[in-house]
Design a protein that fits this description.
The chain has 240 residues and is of the alpha/beta class. 48% of the residues lie in helices and 12% in strands. Helix 5 links the parallel strand 4 and strand 5. It starts with a helix and ends with a helix.
């Protein structure tokens, strides 16, 4: 795995844009050196967490567990409908607005211990790690350690450039998004059971997509951006 210094050099030449979750607060005055500001309190933000009654059918049919942030809180129900109509799979979710990856992995570990895991896990988190990008790689490794080598992990990469912030902060958001995505790509090379859902590359493919598919530089527009992102996820799952 690349060192933090090597990864930071690489991100300066990374061309792909990357998405995020926007119950993120980034004051323009920052002292952490990464330029995106500081993550605000998220624990009281909106969330969508499946009940035991909803979790049991997922385990019985070997569906999917999903762990996400505010994009997933917004888009998760539509994703579940799309996935079920295409593959017959059911999904249980643990989505929490503004949440960075570390507590999302804590939730995965708790579910694994309490319920066990299905054969596939969907991670839609990382956007809220733009404030401290170097912490992300260790959390990816935690996920892969929890699920083991035989289960598949689908991970949606990120694109954050919050339009409500200054140009300097937007640039930092973009750079930090690329840094997160490079760490995810590094992990994929070491773990063949990790699949990347390339939302960042999809948005970067055409200049108009950033405004057409994102309403604030982070969250999807509805239905256009929501449908596009969910379709990429479903296609990745269909591909196995």
């Amino acid at each position: 795995m690349s060192t933090g210094k090597t990864t930071r050099r690489r991100l300066l030449t990374a061309g792909a844009v990357a998405v995020g979750s926007t119950l993120l607060t980034a004051p323009e005055a920052y002292a952490d050196g990464y330029g995106s500001g500081a993550l605000g309190p998220w624990e009281n933000s909106s969330k969508a967490i499946s009940t035991l009654t909803q979790i049991r059918p997922v385990l019985d049919t070997d569906g999917l567990f999903m762990f996400g942030d505010s994009i997933s809180v917004q888009d998760g129900y539509s994703l579940a409908q799309r996935l079920h109509s295409r593959t017959g799979d059911v999904i249980a979710v643990h989505n929490w607005s503004g949440r960075p990856t570390a507590p999302a992995v804590d939730a995965l570990a708790q579910w694994a211990q309490t319920y066990g895991l299905p054969g596939r896990v969907l991670m839609a988190t990382g956007s809220n790690d733009i404030f401290t990008p170097p912490v992300f790689a260790a959390q990816v490794e935690r996920v892969l350690d929890i699920v083991g080598p035989t289960r598949k992990v689908y991970w949606v990469n990120v694109q954050v450039a919050r339009t409500g912030q200054t140009a300097a902060v937007q640039l930092a958001d973009q750079r930090n998004s690329a840094w997160i995505n490079l760490q995810l790509a590094d992990a994929q090379r070491a773990h063949p059971n990790l699949r990347i859902v390339r939302w960042a590359e999809f948005l970067a493919a055409k200049p108009t997509r950033l405004t057409a598919y994102l309403r604030d530089g982070v969250h999807t527009t509805e239905p256009l951006g929501q449908d596009a992102r969910n379709e990429l996820i479903v296609q990745a799952i269909e591909a196995g």
